[in-house]
Amino acid sequence: MMPFGLDSIGVAEEKTDEDIVARVRGGDEGALAEFVRRFSPQALSYAARMTGDLAAAEEIGTSALARTVERLREFEPASGPFSFFFLPILLDGVMKHCSSDEHGKPKRPLVRKLVRPDVRKLYEAFLELDPVYRQVVCLRLLMRLSYAEVARVAGVPIQTVRSQMEFALDRMMASVSAGWASG
């Protein structure tokens, strides 16, 4: 029983990701709109943090959502949460974007101006990391996945994730420290 008689006014209960996916798989167009509303912010946020480019993030996020919908028949709820199905598709798009330009040269993401100089230095240090290390930092610290969840999403052993995280944080700290010493 809900407090204050809320059950009598028809409060809708929260749908799980898996509920929405099942409805989309069943052809429910309303569920498709709900799917896009639920996962677009996550896709955009992650892609924007990884690329430093909002326009590219929108393209990557939209493409990842479309590819995910196309592949929904492959999702097996018994294999784990839907996020473990969706995130690798999103990561693939981000990593392809971050890895190289049309000439095969490594991309350097745009650095947006942040208000505080120390935050900007930290963000610049993050963007200087190889995309593999940015991915681990973003999943672990920004999306708050556990090391085991990051390992599962990235498809690598947990010790690899721990090593990559340690390397990335050391590299970022060295870069920021060097910037403070010279700036």
Descriptive account of the structure:
The chain has helices at 17-25, 29-51, 54-70, 83-99, 117-128, 131-142, 147-154, 158-182. The longest helix is centred in the last third of the chain and has 25 residues, at 158-182. Residues 1-11 and 110-116 have low confidence and may be disordered. Helix 1 (17-25) crosses helix 2, helix 2 packs across helix 3 (54-70) and helix 6 packs across helix 8. The termini are far apart. The chain has 183 residues and is mainly alpha-helical. The chain has 2 domains: 13-109, RNA polymerase sigma factor, region 2, helix turn helix motif (Rna Polymerase Sigma Factor, Chain: A, Orthogonal Bundle), CATH 1.10.1740.10; 111-183, Arc Repressor Mutant, subunit A. It is globular, with a radius of gyration of 19 Å.
Topology (elements, then pairings):
Elements: H1 17-25, H2 29-51, H3 54-70, H4 83-99, H5 117-128, H6 131-142, H7 147-154, H8 158-182
Helix pairs in contact: 1-2, 2-3, 2-4, 3-4, 4-7, 5-8, 6-8, 7-8
Gross geometry: globular
- CATH H-level superfamily of the largest domain: RNA polymerase sigma factor, region 2, helix turn helix motif
Counting H and I runs of at least 4 residues, what is the number of helices?
8
- The CATH level-2 architecture of the largest domain is identified as Orthogonal Bundle
Can you give the helix content as a percent range?
55-70%
Structural class: mainly alpha
Order of helices and strands: HHHHHHHH
Radius of gyration: 19 Å
Low-confidence stretches: 1-11, 110-116
- By CATH reckoning, the class of the largest domain would read Mainly Alpha
Distance between the termini: 61 Å
